[in-house]
Batch of 2 targets.
Target 1
Amino acid sequence: MARSAAFFATALIVGISAQVAPGTARAETAVAFTKTTADRIDRIAIDEIHAGRTPGIAVGVVQDGKLVYDRGFGFATISPHAAMTPTTEFFCGGLTAQFTAAAILLLAQDGKLKLDDSVSKYVPEFRLGTGVTIAQLLTQTSGLPNYVGAPGIPNDFTQTIKFATLLAAVDTMKPRAAPGNVYDKNPLNYLLAGLIVQRTSGVTLSDYLEQHIFIPLVMGNSFLAGDSGISPAHAIGYVKTAAGFEPAPVWDPAWLGGDSGLVSTIDDLAKWDIEMPVLLRVDAMRTMFTPPTIQGQTRYGMGWVVDRRGGQEFVWSNGTLPGYRAFNALLPNQHVGVIVLSNADAARGVTVPEAVGARILDVLVPRKSAELDNPVVARAKEWLARLASRRLDRSELTPGFSAYLTDDLVAHENIAALGRLQAMVPISSTVEPNGDTVYEFLVRFPRAQYRYRFEVAPNGKIDGLTLVS
């Protein structure tokens, strides 16, 4: 396959690193990509297959503006057996938001809309859109209610639904928060953004992405779910059960759209990571990677979480649909990107692309610290240490959780017996109906790894700490 030009090493740096404050730690240098580097990445991926955590996994590495590694392991389909390859098509879930956000930014570049326009300007039939801006949709700070639980809306996502019906049902609900005040990852935000692209451009979101992103970047295997042309050899999504891997239920494309509808491949996503700045101007790139200032919450730009790793800018996104998981991450100062796609899903015991990606990044850009430079991560890690040492500051807990977390319970759980924390990888953050924010991590100890839920109440007090194997 032809390799793309090195835009990743130039234009993207201008777009993101301008946000790095003076005095930031000097960027660690990525290692030269050699056969030994490739072998180490091979081993990480093969271990996932041999451990039975996924039928297949595909990995891509971008370095200095080139796709230096693209390989598939295991099976895209179990029966009949079809090998996983870098050109195997996957449903990418939440990675779709990057492209929907880019479509909005492209329309803004062309003067077709403004990010501070009200949603109601483009979707006047949606009463709750009054006072919500397009930018707040993209930064997941709209405060709009989630369609899950909307009156009259079925919970069977395998059945189709008209978006107008969904929107009308949500419009009878109350907002979850005032616009701009709370980060809450809500699929409705990007479904609405996709509708705004359609009404502004005069073509469907699918056609707009094809004409303005996929064709210009020669992303020939990328499209939205529901479009014709999906390869018969696309990766089948599986759910891990006690009996093994079984095909996952397939969501109807009507629920996916601009939030989760992307179908793509390792090779196509690498083109996107490399050539994003070809399409978006420097100011648009800066906007995409600049989160709103919301104290103590997830720093989410437009389609990307904006973190720091070893003192340097680190942007990433992930996606989950039944049977599919995806991860895309960039270290712009080190000119490195990593993409991981897998075709297995379950509550636990399956491949976590975020964790695989973190291990690969540690191969590519070694660092002394095993954690992200993020106040939420630091606080969550601190409380694991407090539980291990049994030294609790109960002033940081909600009264209800403090009463539940007795000294006897802490002693019984014996967190210290797990050994030294080796890694903590963010997976998600969600806002619960009671207003609590739940941050989920994958944490690794010498002999086991766990899902770690760190729950924070609106007043900043800790309202839950859970380790699940």
Note: Residues 1-369 form a domain with the Beta-lactamase fold (CATH 3.40.710.10).
Target 2
Amino acid sequence: MNATPDTPKTVLVTGASTFLGGYLVTRLAQNPAIERVLAVDSRQPSKDMLRRMGRAEFLRVDIRRPTIAKVIEQSQVDTVVHAATSVMDTAAHSPAIKEFNVIGAMQVCAACQRSESVKRLVLRSTGMVYGASSADPAHFSEDTQARREPVTGFGRDLLDIEGYARGLGRRRTDIAVTIVRPAAILGPQIDTRMSMYFSSSVVPVVIGHEPRLQFLHEEDALAALEHATLTGRPGTFNVAGDGVVTLTQAIRRSGRVELPVLAGMLGPVAGVLRGVGMSKMLADQANYLTYGRVLETTRMRRDLGFMPKYSSTETLDDFIKRRPLEPVVSAATWRGLEQRITDAARVLA
């Protein structure tokens, strides 16, 4: 790829040990128009990931420490991609996770503000900042405020982090700040809470609700971050595949078995189903699977100039095809699950 006036020269990517961060580094390192790529993380990437990164330089740095400012200054970084938030996809939220999210983002933004070389910041955010509730509009545009703003969890963290990034843009008008808000990411390689949900043989659903869902293929998520890094177009952008899929359609296409539960019971029932591969379900995911969330993507196409390769349905189908799912549970297992759920309901009553 030939260099253009907008092509960054030295790019620093946080979260290099995560799927999105690591593979983004790989893509950028393969671009000869970029002179230097720095991969930063407090954890060592896998040997396979380090090999894939090629000429990129890995630096073991905790972004919660002022050391990140020294790295940016000494390396004369002109573009920072804060992708470290991708490590939160499957983790349970905790005070330590919140500290990493919030303090890490504060340090990265402060380092960019003090740097004379940084001209571009790309933040990997999430559609979770819109929350999910019965009062939601049919589509969330980038200017739509959450009807019920997240007060805890990853959505709250990312709302705060976006605030730091926008504050940086106001204080340093010479720095282009790009915020990317992907929909739920699915793919054959990346592990997310939704991929773990659909990988369970039995999936709980709320009686009387038919949430509409959007998906973003892992390859499109990487391509969107790469595009934002290379073009440097400021603004906030929803990123999602075309179309929507209802939860019932998604479950049937993936060959899972629905387990109807009462509203407010998704979390407790998911806990009962841990024995058949169901991951722990946090409150924000339970709300998403009850009410759904659809992002409006006009700005993605018109202003960011990005078009996903996969639609929401194609993303789901590729996930099903390339990531073999466990067979449906046996009748004996069903009876055992029913008894455990009945026992749990009695305790909660």
Note: DSSP finds 13 helices and 13 strands in the chain.
